[in-house]
Amino acid sequence: MNFQFIKNLQNKPEPVKKTIMWTGISLMMFVIFLFWLFTFPFQTSQPIEDARLANLTKEVPSAWQTFKNQFDSIQNLWQK
Questions:
Q1: Residue 57: is it exposed, middle or buried by C-beta count within 10 angstroms (0-12/13-18/19+)?
Q2: Residue 21 in contact with residue 13, Cβ under 8 Å?
Q3: CA-to-CA distance for 11 and 71, rounded, in angstroms?
Q4: Cβ(9)–Cβ(17) under 8 Å?
Q5: Residue 69, pLDDT score
Q6: Is the C-alpha dihedral spanning 71, 75, 76, 78 positive or negative?
Q7: What are the average pLDDT values for consecutive 10-residue runs of the chain, which has 80 residues?
């Protein structure tokens, strides 16, 4: 990096330094966003069907219902 540029930047007034800083940050954010955008896979594949996953999705609502029933029971005991 050119040290003359840094020395010249140090001699500038505070508002100019902040403008240069925010411009650099905005430019870097834009470059990172473009990199992310171009590397983002636009084609989405179908999820792999797994028997264990299918069983889990069937069991989660019943487990949640059991938890809710137990919570309601505890709440009823506390209110009595």
A1: exposed
A2: no
A3: 67
A4: yes
A5: 83
A6: positive
A7: 83 93 96 90 67 69 77 79
